[in-house]
Write a structure and sequence with these properties.
The complex is a heterodimer of chains A (about 270) and B (about 450). Chain A has 10 helices and 8 strands. Chain A is α+β, with helices and mostly antiparallel strands. In chain A, strand 2 and strand 3 form a beta hairpin. The radius of gyration of chain A is 27 Å and the shape is elongated. Chain B is α/β, with parallel strands linked by helices and about 450 residues long. Chain B is built from 14 helices and 17 strands. In chain B, the strands form 4 sheets. A 6-stranded mixed β-sheet of chain B has the order 1-14-13-17-15-16, sandwiched between helices. In chain B, helix 3 packs parallel to helix 5. Classes of the chains: A alpha+beta (about 270), B alpha/beta (about 450). At the A-B interface, helix 5 of A face helix 14 of B.
Chain lengths: ~270, ~450
């Protein structure tokens, strides 16, 4: 009987001492935080994809609080809806940004871009790019091994086995930019989403001279300049044998796409 | 028998071409001279389209200290300067020369007589080596004159010659040692004078007994030069491995050979130094081994830099019917070629041709944790770990695990029973970590 009482009081006493220590420690080492931080984090998607340019959602929330303006801060995953909610919590103005999507600047499928070598190294674009410029005569195009597919945190990219090119799913892409970083040939670009028929861009990155580019791929940009000449809005610039359409000045009139002899302009 | 002590493998040697004397190759119709045949910045052209050049004439100057000069390997007219695909798999700038005759610059001595004496001082010797565009011909292409000028506070006490040629199939250095033995020894005395050392050790694997004996015989009349026979093991010719085998000192991680008092030069580079200093001849030609499955006339060819591989293949009997893989260099560390017009450079040691059967990769499986890769790694690293860390983009952990010490020798991939593509991942891991370190150092330099 005595032993039981001794045991209970000993453990009880120990528990009490530890509780006091914990309480004291919790109060001494308490980190004072802005209560709005948790509120802001709650409004964010919580994916921690880094698309905003910060190391995760918490970091982004901290930046929002610190700067107290939302000019240069945008969460591509949550989009305008999320930013409005964050603005409401902070009591500041929300800035509406036009939705964007990632596009692949290459149309060099197996059918139009003949292979000249076989690669049997490790199946990643990064490693293939180390070994050889390309397995075709175009040193700039898609390597087809799906580093972008693995990098996308939203499963928005799928490899098309018929063309060996990745395809971006309209509704799943949130333009976080992971694919832009993953592609060793820098083939992805974030452009304005508009409608699916409103996206005009040059689906080629080949900077070789026209004769070489054209032989390597039937739909390559050969740098002929017809698109630049026909654009009434100065939205097309030809540089290093490659055309580029400026997303901000383009009015989607499609004159350039119609004039392109190799159908290198996606519309 | 002396050897490096950590790891290593014993691939079959395939040194059949070691008994074939060097054949002088015919001149190519067009010489394609890449501007980057060395480690460091590409050279800057000093000629333009339409210029007439003589063999041995300067056509591109070095861009800064870690760079090399380039000379015309043939006489003729400059056709164009444009990017062409090279062994890296990408296009790089090259000077194309349309060959016409074989006229050399007057000051170049093309006689075969041995010139023993060198009256130049160390500074003059190094300057002549730099002007001749000599780079490490073992494959890395490090500018020789930079290696011969150690950083402030570091001094060499021994010159080590890499005459190991541990890669299977390659025998170019072996033949050079047999056919130009005295020239090599004279080249060594010149180099010893340049770096002011009185000790030189030539490391040769014992599968080249005839070369060992020949050099040992002749070295008697050259004070300070000894020949060290070494065990046949790959990668005995790796710089750090050779230093350990020969003078029993380990180069510290991230350090240079000169940190342990050694300067290492490939034996072909030594011969090029002899030609440059004694005959005023810049580096414009080299010996390469051409062999493989189905090659009709395998052998060693003395070719001019810029000769397309297709030309070299023709001299060896043409492309075999079942040819599937072409490698520039050796089978362990060589580069696969994606087209036949890629030219020979200062660092090309061989052209190997293999059939599909002999080179296609087997299916790879999950790591079975056998530890074979760790057992064979000559740098004492953990390749299985590197592959996993690279796949998960753990760059910090990779750096801490010393990925930058990897010499990319391929022993791990060769030994893996699960046929995992270890070296593929090691290379990309190393490149990514290297770039991150480079970016960090640059940022700290700019005070960011």
């Amino acid at each position: 009987m005595n032993l039981t009482l001794l045991a209970i009081s000993a453990l009880g006493g120990l528990a009490l001492v530890l509780a006091v220590i914990l309480y004291a420690a919790a109060n001494t080492f308490k980190v004072s935080e802005d209560p709005r931080l948790d509120e802001v984090i709650e409004k964010l998607p919580g994916v921690n994809c880094g698309g905003c340019g910060f190391a995760g959602c918490r970091n982004f929330a901290e930046a929002c609080l610190k700067q107290n303006r939302l000019d240069a801060l945008f969460c591509p995953v949550g989009g305008n809806k999320t930013m409005s909610a964050v603005a409401a919590v902070l009591g500041i103005e929300a800035i509406q940004v036009e939705p964007a999507i990632a596009v692949l600047r290459c149309n060099g499928s197996c059918a139009v871009r003949p292979k000249v070598a076989v690669y049997d190294g490790a199946s990643t674009c990064g490693i293939a790019a180390l070994t050889s410029g390309n397995l075709t005569n175009c040193f700039w195009g898609c390597l087809g091994l799906g580093d972008c597919v693995s990098a996308c945190p939203f499963n928005a990219i799928r490899m098309n086995p018929a063309t060996s090119l990745p395809e971006i799913e309209e509704d799943a892409c949130v333009s976080c930019g992971a694919c832009v970083n993953a592609c060793p040939n820098g083939l992805f670009e974030i452009r304005k989403k508009r409608s699916i028929t409103g996206r005009i861009y040059v689906a080629c990155m080949n900077k070789d001279k026209g004769a070489i580019a054209g032989k390597a791929c039937f739909v390559a940009c050969i740098g002929c300049g017809k698109c630049e000449k026909v654009c009434a809005y100065h939205a097309v610039i030809l540089k290093d044998n490659l055309a580029y359409i400026n997303d901000d000045t383009c009015t989607q009139c499609r004159k350039c796409a119609e004039s392109c002899p190799t159908h290198a302009i996606h519309e | 028998m002396k050897s490096f002590t950590i790891g290593g493998i014993h691939p079959p040697e395939f040194k059949q071409t070691s008994t074939v004397p060097i054949i002088q190759a015919r001149l190519p119709r067009t010489a394609i001279v890449l501007l980057n045949q060395h480690l460091g910045k590409p050279a800057i052209p000093v000629v333009k389209k339409g210029d007439a050049v003589k063999a041995g004439q300067l056509i591109a100057e070095a861009d800064g200290v870690v760079s090399a000069t380039i000379h015309a390997p043939v006489s003729g007219i400059i056709k164009t300067i444009e990017p062409i695909p090279d062994a890296t798999g990408y296009k790089h700038q090259a000077i194309l020369i349309e060959t016409s005759g074989d006229e050399w610059l007057d000051q170049i001595n093309r006689s075969e007589t041995l010139e023993r004496d060198c009256l130049l001082n160390p500074g003059e010797i190094i300057k002549k080596i730099a002007n001749a565009g000599i780079v490490g011909m073992g494959g890395a292409g490090f500018p020789a004159h930079v290696k011969l000028m150690p950083p402030e506070g570091k001094r060499a006490t021994v010159l080590i010659v890499n005459a190991v040629e541990c890669e299977p199939y390659l025998t170019a250095d072996h033949r050079l040692m047999l056919e130009k033995s005295e020239e090599i020894l004279v080249g060594l005395t010149i180099l010893m004078k340049a770096i002011q050392v009185d000790k030189c050790i030539i490391g040769i694997e014992i599968n080249k007994m005839d070369a060992i004996r020949r050099l040992q015989e002749l070295a008697v009349s050259y004070p300070g030069i000894t020949v060290q026979p070494l065990k046949v093991k790959y990668p005995q010719g790796g710089e750090k491995q050779l230093i350990e085998a020969v003078i029993h000192r380990q180069v510290p991680s991230g350090g240079l050979p000169v940190d342990v008092g050694a300067i290492v030069q490939n034996v072909a580079t030594v011969y090029a130094v002899y030609e440059a200093v004694q005959k005023n001849k810049p580096l414009v030609e080299r010996v390469i081994t051409v062999t493989g499955n189905g090659i009709k006339k395998p052998g060693n060819f003395l070719v001019r830099i810029g000769t397309p591989m297709s030309y070299v293949l023709d001299m060896a009997g043409g492309l075999p019917i079942d040819a599937a893989k072409l490698i520039s260099g050796g089978p362990m560390m060589g580069k696969p070629l994606t087209n036949l017009d890629i030219p020979v450079t200062k660092c090309t040691s061989g052209l190997l041709v293999f059939s599909h059967q002999n080179t296609s990769r087997k299916e790879s499986f999950a790591c079975i944790r056998c530890g074979k890769c760790i057992e064979v790694c000559p740098m004492g690293l953990e390749p299985y770990l590197f592959m996993t860390l690279t796949q998960h983009s753990e760059w910090d952990k990779l750096e801490k695990a010393h990925i930058m010490d990897c010499i990319e020798c391929g022993c791990c991939t060769y030994s893996c029973p699960a046929t995992r593509p270890l070296l593929d991942y090691l290379r990309i891991g190393k490149q990514t970590v290297g770039n991150l370190i480079h970016r960090q150092t640059n940022h700290s330099d700019h005070g960011q």
